[in-house]
């Protein structure tokens, strides 16, 4: 018979006491294993063997499974507002368990949480409800780019979403280089502005977006474009201008926190280009 630590390890590092008892381990044996330090009791009825991620440990102690942005960040999916405290799926009719240093965000969504973490599709659904359409869309396109969702998973996700939000799945693309680009494209889509994405231009290279064949939009992200990168951007913009393009560049702070200014600049540029066409 396997030892309790080996059995829990084969079960993924976490196990319910009821399951272990079904496998032949008595309550007394499990208690002695905890006292020896062979296994850890995360909460009443749930045992673990290290290593166990801090977020999963906290979610388990809280009484549920890690979910939402906490799971997305584990997969390095782009999240509009990164979280530093665990988001925990408790189910619709369960209550949290008090535990040391608890800063968990409870999600009372239907279903029975598994041990550990929610599946990625479930975490995306929870993220939609928690963070809203825009944040979900950017995360979903990031998951597509990282090739984390099979065709079947995408179909399950779309079917489980509210009908009013399914259009977000339908317009999503795999080629967005960042969540920032996803946000910009979604917001312009809502305004009825069509963009060509990831366009290759002779003597310029690949640009994020082109509108109307003449206006280039670049989303520069959080990284400060100084020094060499800034010089390369200026060279590209000059080459684009020589070919008849106008370039607008926006950084993370502008797109996320000052969208009205960004929108006004784009609309003004389109009107200006139309006037001179």
Provide an overview of this structure.
With 277 residues, this protein is α+β, with helices and mostly antiparallel strands. It folds into 3 domains: 1-52, no CATH class; 55-174, no CATH class; 175-277, 3-Layer(aba) Sandwich (Endonuclease, Chain A). The chain is built from 13 helices and 10 strands. Strands 7-8-9-10 form a 4-stranded mixed β-sheet, with helices on both faces. It has a 3-stranded antiparallel β-sheet with strand order 1-3-2. Helix 5 packs across helix 6, helix 6 (120-131) packs antiparallel against helix 7 and helix 7 (133-145) crosses helix 10 (179-190). The longest helix is centred in the C-terminal third of the chain and has 18 residues, at 259-276. It is elongated, with a radius of gyration of 24 Å.
Secondary-structure topology with pairs:
Elements: H1 4-10, E1 14-16, H2 17-22, H3 27-36, E2 40-43, E3 46-48, H4 54-62, E4 65-66, H5 68-74, E5 87-89, E6 105-107, H6 120-131, H7 133-145, H8 151-160, H9 167-170, H10 179-190, E7 196-201, E8 205-211, E9 215-219, H11 227-242, E10 246-250, H12 252-257, H13 259-276
Helix pairs in contact: 5-6, 6-7, 6-8, 7-10
